[in-house]
Every structure is written in structure tokens, then in C-alpha cells.
Amino acid sequence: MPGFGLRVTANGAKTFVFNYRTRTGRQRRIRIGSYPAYTVEAARKVARDHYMAVSAGGDPMADIQGERDAPTVAKLCEFYIEHYLHTKKPAPAKTDRYAIDRIILPRLKHHKLTEIRHSDINRIHRDLTKAGKPYRANRVLALLNAMFGLAIKEGWLEKNPCKGVKKNTETPRERYASPDELIRLLDALAAYPDQSAANAVRLLMLTGARRGEVLSMTWGQINFDKATWTKPSAHTKTERLHHIPLSAPALQLLSEMKEAASDDGNAAYVFPGPGKDGHRVDLKKPWAAICKAAKLTNLRLHDLRHTYASFLVAGGASLPMIGKLLGHTQAATTMRYAHLDVDPLREFTDRVGKIISGTDKADAEIVPMVKSRARK
After folding, report:
1. Strands (E), 94-241
2. What is the mean pLDDT of residues 158-181?
3. Rounded CA gap, 51 and 46, in Å?
4. Which of 153, 169, 200 is where one domain is finished?
5. FRET pair for 162, CA 20 to 30 Å: which of 41, 169, 237, 272?
6. What is the dihedral of CA 170, 176, 181, 184, to 10 degrees?
């Protein structure tokens, strides 16, 4: 077998090797294995395979080195974190980082990308689902799909192993606060010691905005003369500038808060906070305490947004108007709302404010937006 030989060192160690020249004339030597772990027959068979590859114009040593240096899942995770994670908003970025550190790396860290199979991805998805985390299983699958898609773009991989893994069926959550629950909620808000947190919840109820949008609200975004709130693109989920009208109760609440606002270093924020952001970043503890006091179960802060939308529907608002007020997350739908004016929406957002504040006596269900001790 041309190129096949046995290398013997000064101390007597014997190693089977295969020598060849590449198409460019470069000499190469491949170490096959040690004797007697490899028999002559076994080593000759390996050398024959290399010889056939060289005869076909290949370079076995380059193939071996390429396989040795092939990117691992750990390298792909590092690449994703360095080049793409910072483009996401804080919440989804935190979710991705958790999935990478706690789920993906512990299972696949040292695996080369070319070694990952459909079954490996399916196993991760199935295990998370069996653990009672079907939604997280879908989020991890989506993250892996995006990461392997990047690997294909970088030329590290030819086929995405996530293709064909079936996602779990997700049922949209539909939880709305009933009028009775709203009354108990308002009572709890009135009695809660931290009225700054209570006012944040009240504004969530009166505007249907997202928690992050309300907590990062600045006084400069509020136009008291025109009764509008301009949400900057950096604070909205759709990353678009969003103008919404404010109902009379919402405007009154903000006016009272403005008068009582202190002139400290974070006075620009409606809900100042001590952290580096300068404003409150969450309402977890206050909301848990308020729900406990109001005897509310399984009600999230985000469900107040759904409740607001339900009042809009009951008031006869069209889907485009509702989408405009809520800042719809679907790009195609958002474009349908982009050309609507603020004024046609004011009637409906005022109606929501009146229903919640109790000033609309024509409604069958009235939820007064007043402190419980002032209600007769």
C-alpha cells in the first residue's frame, strides 16, 4: 500500500502512519494508530481508505483537522450572545440567556454542530414538555432554530437540525377582571401603603398599556393640554412611536401625581426609582400584596390590558381602533393602524375611563375609580 508505514521511535514505540502528497505538492503524514492496539490488517485498511481519498483529489489530513476544529454548540452560543443578544429588549434577552445557560449548554456544550441531530433537539423539547413547561419548550426550540440558522449563514452548518420538531400547541390566555374583581382591586389599591405602585396599577387599568411602558413613563411624554401620551419607540414592544389619547380620569390622576411629584434627581420619571434606570422596573411584590388583599387569584398585571380591551369591545370600538390604542404587536396589523388619527379614538378611551371611574351612570356595571373609604 503506497504511503503506508510503521514509525518506530527511539524508545521503541510503534505507530502506523500514512504518507501522501496533496494536489499542491504538500507532503502530509496521518497517524493511524499504535501497535499492537492496531493490527497490521486494520491499519492497512485505514491507509487504503486514505489512499482512495487522495486518489480522488481529497486531503484526508485537512478533513481530520477540519473536524477537530469544527465549531461546537458552546462557540455558537458565544457567537449569538456577542453579536445578537444585545439587539433584543431586556426581557426576551434575559429569557434567551437563561435558556442558554441553564438548558442548552448543560446538554450540548461540547457537541460539534455537525454532530447535532434532529433527535437531540427533539429530546430537549420533549423533556421540557414532560417537566410541565410546554411554553418554555417552544421558546427554547425557537431560540435553537434561530441559532442554528445563524450557523448556516456563517457556513458552519448545512442543515438545521431543528427542522421538523413539532411545537406544542399554545392556547392564548384569556383572563379578564370582572366588575366585582375590579371593585375589590380598587379597594385594595386605596389601602395599599405605596401609592406610587398603586397609581402605576391604576394607569395600567386606565390606559391598557404594557407594564414597562407605564413604569418608564416620563412627564415629557404627557401632553396635558392635548390629553395625549406619546410613547417613545425605545419603550414600546413594536419599536414604533405610539400616540394615544388619555381619558379624563387618567389625565386627572396624572395631574394629581404631577403636583405631588418631588424635585429629586429622578423627577423626569412619573414613577422614579433608586436603580440605574432611574424608574421603577417591576411591580411584582406590590402586585402580589394587592391581589392578596383583594382576594384575586390567577390575575396577572398583563390581564389588566386584556380587561381594558374588553371594555373597548363592549363600547363598540372597531378592531383597528383597539389595535391603535393598544399598540398591536403584529407588524402587518400595526401598519393598518398607523394612519388612524388620535381624535376618533378619544371617544372610546374616554368611555373606558368613565366606566372604571364610575362617572358613566348609563352603564349597567360601574367600577368607581375612587378610594373605598370615600364611597358611600
Report:
1. 222-223, 228-231
2. 85
3. 9
4. 153
5. 237
6. 90
